């Protein structure tokens, strides 16, 4: 099958859905070109099929493929922010990292190494799939590239600042505690958004606060609304290099059933997308979308949500790199 692509502004875009049905052919994210099909990519999408760090339902290793499959309907113009992200910047799918499913330490090292390699040419990295363990090596790479600690916006039902599980330090419930310990986060500007649900004890919150985290709970989003929250986050973070980590379980299980540790009372996909759009112009240096576990998904509900979150993140980064970067 000959690929017929949309080309705009000298950028190779998605396969043209008016000429080749969008359900045909092998899936890349948004039917964008593979990395080897472009000369240079400004933004690279990469999958991390890894879920050895999970504490409950497994399956996020299949998340990368599922997000790609659920992204076939994405169109090239994003009216919510008036941006054609694939025409402003060259965006390409870098495929999946090959990571060891039997050795977490080795996997973490490989992810860091791969992320550094993919960003060596100055490209921005957006990661799809995997469990939340992978945020640690991705943050290590991001802070190395930024030349120091980075700010963090962490969208999640969970704090993920717990200490250990079964004595294990590197799990999907612990990446941000490790990141604080390693000094790769700018603790003046780190915040969870969307947290809720039962904890092990009050100490979880005390520890989290001691590490420097601000918290915008799921209830805060409900009572305060998107605008007020966006303003607060922008104030707190300013122009610092900012990494955004989105655990899809930040969404209510009604909006994202396909995930490993679901919690009732979450935000809607509209709220999440609106908060992200409010971050326009901020100095985003990398992002991940994790914890998509397709075995528990129905009708691609979770996959579609994750693929649209990815699209809005790409829109922000593309705008930042080549657009007006305006709020
Ligand atoms: N979904 C993420 N990242 N973390 C959940 C950890 C839940 C727990 O077992 O306590
Ligand atoms: Zn979570
Ligand atoms: Zn998480």
What does the model show?
The chain is α/β, with parallel strands linked by helices. It has one domain: Arginase, Chain A, CATH 3.40.800.10. 32% of the residues lie in helices and 18% in strands. The chain is built from 10 helices and 10 strands. Strands 4-3-5-10-9-6-7-8 form an 8-stranded parallel beta sheet, sandwiched between helices. The chain has a two-stranded antiparallel ribbon with strand order 1-2. 54% of the residues are buried. The model has no long low-confidence stretch (mean pLDDT 97). The site of 4-carbamimidamidobutanoic acid (ALG) has 12 residues, from loops. One zinc ion (ZN) is lined by residues 132, 156, 158, 160, 172, 247, 291. Mn(2+) binds at residues 132, 156, 158, 160, 247, 249.
Précis, in short:
This protein is of the alpha/beta class and 327 residues long. The protein has 10 helices and 10 strands. This is Guanidinobutyrase.
Count, helices = 10
Q: Give the cofactors and ligands.
A: 4-carbamimidamidobutanoic acid, zinc ion
Distance between the termini: 41 Å
Percent in strands: 15-25%
SS content category: alpha/beta
Could you please say which CATH topology applies here? Arginase, Chain A
Radius of gyration: 18 Å
Shape category = globular
Tally of distinct domains: 1
What order do the strands of the largest sheet run in, or round the barrel if closed?
4-3-5-10-9-6-7-8
Q: What's the SSE pattern?
A: EEEHHEHEHEHEHEHHEHEH
The first-level CATH class is given as: Alpha Beta
Low-confidence stretches: none
- Annotated CATH architecture: 3-Layer(aba) Sandwich
What would the average pLDDT be, to the nearest integer? 97
> What's the number of extended β-strand segments?
10
Largest sheet: 8 strands, parallel
**CATH 4th-level superfamily:** Ureohydrolase domain
**Helix share bin:** 25-40%
Quaternary structure type? single chain
